[in-house]
Amino acid sequence: MRTSKVTIEDIAGRAGVSKATVSRVLNRPTTVTEVKREAVKVAMNEMGFKPNQFARSLANGHSNTIGIVTQNIGTSFYDSIARSIIQSLRQTQYAPIFSDGMYEHDAENAAINTLLDRQVDAVIVLGGDLTPDEIHGGEDAVPMVMVARQIEGWNGVCIGVDNVAMGYNATKHLIDAGHVQIAHVTGNPSHEDAVNREKGYRKALAEANIPIDEDLIFPGNFYGQAGVLAVESWLMRGKSFSAVFAANDLSAFGVRLALSRRNIRVPDEVSIVGIDDKIESALMPPPLTTIRQPADAMGEAAVKAVTTILSGKKTESVLMQGELIVRESVSRRH
Amino acid sequence: MRTSKVTIEDIAGRAGVSKATVSRVLNRPTTVTEVKREAVKVAMNEMGFKPNQFARSLANGHSNTIGIVTQNIGTSFYDSIARSIIQSLRQTQYAPIFSDGMYEHDAENAAINTLLDRQVDAVIVLGGDLTPDEIHGGEDAVPMVMVARQIEGWNGVCIGVDNVAMGYNATKHLIDAGHVQIAHVTGNPSHEDAVNREKGYRKALAEANIPIDEDLIFPGNFYGQAGVLAVESWLMRGKSFSAVFAANDLSAFGVRLALSRRNIRVPDEVSIVGIDDKIESALMPPPLTTIRQPADAMGEAAVKAVTTILSGKKTESVLMQGELIVRESVSRRH
DNA sequence: TGCTTGCTTGAAAGCGGTTTCACGTGTAAG
DNA sequence: CTTACACGTGAAACCGCTTTCAAGCAAGCA
C-alpha cells in the first residue's frame, strides 16, 4: 500500500509514545532512549510509515530539494553534467528539481525564480550568462553554485573548467606535431568559454613564436555548420593551413565534413583537434583527437560543493582541467 | 527581497479581509467580489507575496510536481525527450523532479519510490524495463505515463514510437535504391526497440522477396563499437553486402568508421542508414541518411497526457512515427 | 410583508510534521 | 540529606495555507 496515510500520530499510538518522541527518532535518534527508539522503529516498519515531506518542510523550512538551472543548448556537455548531478545527488538526502534557462537571459532569471518559489534549499546553475548582481539577488535567499562558468566579481563557488588551458593544450599539441599554419574555428564570440579557448590558442602560438594570422581565425558558434563555413571561407580566400583547432568537437566535425567534400585528406593533409570528446568523436573517420571536458567530475564537484555549503561549511571554487585524448586526426607535418 | 516571509495573514490584514478570502482569490478568484479581489491583489503586489508551496501542498494534497524517471544511458534520444519535457512543463503549473533509473531494474524501482516519497502528482517514465505489475504497484498511487515504450498488458498511457515501421522504412529505402544484400546491425537484443527494428527489417526484406541471410544480421548493442565489430565480422567471413541498416546512428557511425579503415567508400561501395538523426549525423562524411525519432514531439505528448489525466480527463496512448531524412550515405546500387 | 434562496464572508478546524517548554527522574555535587 | 543539573519525555504551540461550516445579507417570490 503506497498511499501512506500512516501519520506520525499513528506510530506514536502504536509505540505508546508521543508524537514528539516519534519526531525525535526521525531527526535526532540519539536523544531518545534505546528502548523507545526501537519500539518506534518497529511500529514504523509494521505500519509502513513514510513521513510527509510537505509537513516536514513546512515545519522546519527545508525542502531537501536542490534546483538545477539547465540551458537548452544542443551540446552534450551540459547534458552530461546534468546527468552527473542527478547521479551524485542520489547519494544524498536531496532531490534535484529542474528548470530551464533556455540560454536566454530573461528565461534564466525566470527559471531561478521558479526554483526559489519552490523553496529549493540551494541552486546549481549550469552555464548561462547571469551577471554577478543578478546572481546576488538570488544568492541571499539560498546558496548558489555555478557550474561551467567562472565569474569574476562574485565570491560564490564556481565549478569551472580551464578553457584557456584547453585551448592552449589543443594548439600546443598541433605545434608539437610540427604544424605552423594552424587555423582556428572559434565558438560563439559572446560566450566566455569561446573567448578563453581562443585566448589559449593565441597564447600557444605566441609562445612558439608563430605569428598569428587573423584570417585563419574564423568566428564560429559551436555548431557544426560553423566548421564547414570556416573551411569554405579559408579555401575560397586561398589561405593555406595544415591544421585546425576547432573550439568544440561539433565544429571539428563540420571542418572534417567540409574537407572531405573537397577531397582533402585528414590527417594526411590537414590535422584537426577539437574539444569535448563526445561519444561520436571516437567514431569519426578518422577518430578525432580532442580534449575531454571533465563533465562527470564537474557534476560531482557541484553536488559536493552544494552539500558542504548546506551543511554549514565553506568550500572553494574549483577549476578543472581538460584531458588531451590523442587519436588519429593529427599527423606530424611532413 | 526574496526571503518572502509575507504570509497570507499579512495580506489579509493589509487588505482588510480574512485569510479565507485571500486563499480564495488565490484558488477560485471568481467566488470573491470584484472589489475585495482587487484589494487583495493590490496587497499581494505591494508586499511581494509568494505563497508557501509546502503549506499549500500540505493542505490540499497536491505537490504540483511531476516526477520523471530517466535512464542513464548514453543515448541522446532520452536526453532530448527529457529536455522537451522540461520545456513543455514550463507552460504548466507543474515542475519536473528527476530521479535516475540508471537503466537497471532495481534502480528504476528505487527511483520511482523516491519520487513517490516526494509526493509527486504523477510520474513519467522514460524507457526502462519495468513490468506491468511493477508499474501497477506505483500506478494506483499516482498516474503514470510511459514514454518511448509500449507495454502490452497494461492499459495506462504510453507515448511510443513505431520501431517496426522505422526498421521497415529504413530497410525499404535501401531496397528502393536497388540494394539486395542488406546487412543489419541490431540494437541490444534484450531491448524491445531493437527487436522491433529488426522485425521491420525482416518485414521489408520479406515483402520484397529478398531471402534473409542470418549471417548478415549482427547482434549489436546500440553502441558505436558494435558497428565496427559488425563490419569486421562480415568482412572476415567474406560476406558481401552493398548496404547496411544500423539500428541507430551510433552504430552507423561505427560501421562507417570500420569501412573507412578498409578503404571501402561510402556510399559508392556501401550504403548506410541509421536511426535517430543525431546532430552529428548531418556532419558525418558523408552526411548520414537516417530516420529521425520524434523526441520533441514525444516529450510534448507525454506532458500533455499527464496534464490531461491530472485534470481528470482521459487520454489515449499514442504511437508516433519516425521521419526518413535522406542525405548522402545511400546511393543507387549500380 | 414574510419567507426562502443564493451568494459572499470570516472563524476555526485541519493537513502532518517540528520544536519549545515545563515537568518529572536519576545522578552528581555540596 | 539537600541542591543542582542533565536528560528523557509529553503537551501544546506553531509552520502557512485550504476548506468546511455557519452566519449575514440582499434579492426573489408568494
TrEMBL record, chains A, B:
Pfam family, one: Peripla_BP_3
Record keywords: DNA-binding, Repressor, Transcription, Transcription regulation
Keyword Repressor assigned: yes
SMART domains, per the entry: HTH_LACI (SM00354)
Signal sequence extent: none
GO MF, one example: transcription cis-regulatory region binding
Limits of the HTH lacI-type domain: 6-60
Entries under PANTHER family matching the protein: HTH-TYPE TRANSCRIPTIONAL REPRESSOR PURR-RELATED, LACI-RELATED TRANSCRIPTIONAL REPRESSOR
Protein name as annotated: HTH-type transcriptional regulator DegA
Source organism of the structure: Rubripirellula obstinata
Lineage: Bacteria, Pseudomonadati, Planctomycetota, Planctomycetia, Pirellulales
